[in-house]
């Protein structure tokens, strides 16, 4: 090969290499880290987050992937700040694990909301978008969704036939609102994460627990607990968030953001609600022959509504402290719940 042809060949090779390198950069993956503190077998991980992560990768054709970390980078109360400060790109947790930090989500933790997690989760998201987000409680992150678990009931090693039977019992709770409800009913609140439920009950630290049906089953409490007391819509609920570091979200191309957005917000909340409704039904079925469930009578429900009314009013007032009309948010929540229930 003469010198001229060698130069041309070298140039062609160089250009080809540059094109290949550019193409590789253009198609480079954005790998997002997701902090997770629940066991990988928990349905919120295996049946909600893992399929959702796969959908993110699918719609972006592999350009955006989420890597769920094998061990948490911090305890559940630290989750929000892990995302906000960029230690993790995505994180989830329970609002109530950091008492006093979030006031607006109290709207979604009220008693007597709905037996459908789809209804409460989607309604919660709609109220957030319409009213609650103006409080600015999620500064520094992109809110991917908000949702609730299914109705929270009370389960115990001791008989509960009426609301009065709760008095004096030591009850594990997981939020400030649940603490207030337990106290109002005469119980002794016991603090502790859900992962410590078996330990608290088996060692007698707690007599009972506020939990949705799913969690009793998942944390292997069917053989420890003997009694359950249920009310329509639950005695309480638990509000949760999934958030992403704002700067990391902004680093994703507008084209991929547009592909991801339909998997967030209300769609993600509905997906979470569907998962919770499914596993709650399975959890309730698993109690058959093991836990005696007592449904509150209409008269008992009215007594409970009267007793808990001051707590509801107090929570609405706390929401209003953020500059949001708490009563309007509360009313909208129940209006939206009714609409969604009518669709189901």
Give a structural overview.
- With 344 residues, the protein is of the alpha/beta class.
- The chain has two domains: 17-148 and 238-279, D-Maltodextrin-Binding Protein, domain 2, CATH 3.40.190; 153-236 and 287-343, D-Maltodextrin-Binding Protein, domain 2, CATH 3.40.190.
- It is built from twelve helices and eleven strands.
- It has helices at 3-26, 43-59, 79-84, 117-130, 176-184, 197-202, 213-218, 246-250, 254-260, 265-286, 298-320, 326-343, and strands at residues 30-34, 64-68, 90-94, 141-148, 153-156, 170-173, 188-191, 208-211, 227-230, 239-245, 292-295.
- A six-stranded mixed sheet has the order 7-6-8-5-9-11. The protein has a three-stranded antiparallel sheet with strand order 3-10-4. A two-stranded parallel ribbon has the order 1-2.
- α2 links the parallel β1 (30-34) and β2.
- The N and C termini lie far apart (76 Å).
List keywords for this structure.
D-Maltodextrin-Binding Protein, domain 2, three-stranded antiparallel beta sheet, alpha/beta, disordered N terminus, globular, 344 residues
Provide a count of the helices: 12
What is the number of E strands? 11
General form: globular
Largest sheet: 6 strands, mixed
CATH topology category name of the largest domain: D-Maltodextrin-Binding Protein, domain 2
Mean pLDDT: 91
What amount of the residues lies in strands?
Answer: 15-25%
Spatial sequence of strands, sheet with the most strands: 7-6-8-5-9-11
Supply the number of structural domains: 2
Unreliable spans are: 1-26
> Looking at this structure, what is the CATH superfamily of the largest domain?
Bacterial extracellular solute-binding protein, family 7
- The helix fraction, in percent, is 40-55%
| Whole-angstrom Rg | 24 Å
Structural class per helix/strand content?
alpha/beta
**CATH C-level label of the largest domain:** Alpha Beta
Pfam family, one: DctP
Main location: periplasm
InterPro entries: DctP_fam (IPR018389), TRAP_DctP_sf (IPR038404)
Subcellular location: Periplasm
